[in-house]
């Protein structure tokens, strides 16, 4: 069962980036450069808006029902995405596919530790971190291979047989006596924090949407549209904060499950894990999308070749993920692995930014720099996942994993928007007055439109992109430095041990399941359930 869940996790995360090496081909197919990027962004926005909400739904309706629903959504709309006859259809179906994908992502992170014997927790977390870290960088590789050898539609259709098989197996083989905690056997909408879910999604989506539109120059920074959207996002975030504080501290907490319990974000190590995950997502998405794009634009490589150039990042990320979780198998070394991981991110991004040839020529040293960055990314991702399993109260396990999942996608989407802004600023300064305003506007939306212009313009554009790529990685380096500084705040003199936490988790799951069977636990507000969740430190 864990294998099928990890496969679903891998598919969902891979689809975040698999489209990156196919965007040019898709845009040519639909003769629409301007909207094609939204085929990638719509999936990410759905991921941002629904991650925490899915984990809360699983608390109410049960893990099995929500996992099967997520797989069904993902498979059906993967098929629909591949059958799209217009870019508008593709954007819509990708958003719906993203809803299923975020369910697979967040719920797999919740369920795998719950169904595994507590003594295997370090191994499980290492595998989860390995899956999360490698899926994102495998996406462009597989996307490039598929796009270069057959139709781009297969990057979506490949999910259908895999997802369908997983649905059948999980439907008939879901264990009835494992450590799965279905917190409430009877579905109850009264327990759902719908207002919190709406406010959370509104803030996240509006902020990222507006940042992306500003980056593509559809909105100016001071335009009424941009100001209105940023203000609306800020108001939604403020109201969300007040509402979560109220239902986390008041008597109403017995009847409503907070979308983000305050005890999670006020616990220092957990707050560090969330903030570090946001910043790691920024760095990872910048590299995963930027490196293949550089290969295609500057080196004129095919989607296959540009995807293959990411393999050093893939292998190093995989090793870093396994090491990050495995290092804490006996002792809680999460502080050290996170600090070292973020430090390696700083070194990797610095080398990629400052040490590459100024003329844009390819150098094999780039592979070594990727491996340093990948090692840091892998260690950081798996450590944040492991900290989540060690630090949160038992009853908050699902929602905290959902929060970490959303944080990674949120940071990554900001990274993509930031890359767009940096690139277009360089284009503005380099090509303004050289090309027509209509051509420059088209380049703001998609860099691949340069293939339709003159050779002289192409040379100027590539020179501009080389500078933009270096600056993009330089900003990612600053973000990695911030992640390193924040990771130092995770220090604890007596951190919870893996053994004591595993014993507590085993006891809590067993007693909670027995309580449900005996009718002793009737909701998350029950004092006994809260007691079972007390952290051991």
From TrEMBL:
Record key words, sorted: Membrane, Transmembrane, Transmembrane helix
Domain Major facilitator superfamily (MFS) profile: 1-454
Pfam families (UniProt xref): MFS_1
Compartment(s) of residence: Membrane
Keyword Membrane belongs to the record: yes
MF term (GO), any: transmembrane transporter activity
Topology with respect to the bilayer: Multi-pass membrane protein
SUPFAM superfamilies hit by this protein: MFS general substrate transporter
Record keyword Cell inner membrane present: no
Primary location group: membrane
Cited InterPro entries: MFS, MFS_dom, MFS_trans_sf
TM segment ranges: 7-27, 33-54, 66-84, 90-108, 120-142, 154-174, 194-214, 226-248, 269-291, 303-323, 335-355, 367-387, 431-450, 475-491
GO cellular component, one term: plasma membrane
Protein name as it appears in the record: Major facilitator superfamily transporter
Record organism: Hyaloscypha hepaticicola
Lineage start: Eukaryota, Fungi, Dikarya, Ascomycota, Pezizomycotina
